[in-house]
Amino acid sequence: MIKKQAVPFGDAMGMEVAFCNAISVDMSTVKRQIWLSGQIAFDEQGDIVGKGDIAAQTEQCVKNLQAALEKLDATLNDIVEVTVFVTDMTGLKHVHEVRLKYFDPPYPTSTLVRVSGFVHPDALIEIKAVAVV
To answer: Helix 92-102 vs helix 54-70: angle between axes, to the nearest 10 degrees?
Structure first.
């Protein structure tokens, strides 16, 4: 089992969040590292899920990360860092509500970036990640 130690974020955002300020991993327990490309809310047919719905798109992005990790014998709990790109900051509460359903403490670190758009015009969010196994 990977040994992790986290520094909690606190309540500065006024809502429960699915990330910590810092995370430490005992590298003597790590066998490999996985870098996951940014995931947009594409389903298995290549269609965007949840047009106009940041929560639905966040859920699909997380499911896409989960599916990629499963192919490498890893889980969402192995993620130590996420980078989240959004086109609109007003849906952050919904983003965190979804992430809290999928991630367990200690939460990964997280960086949030607002962008003007994505490769698909209906995409509202993209999530990339780093995991240690």
So the answer is: 30
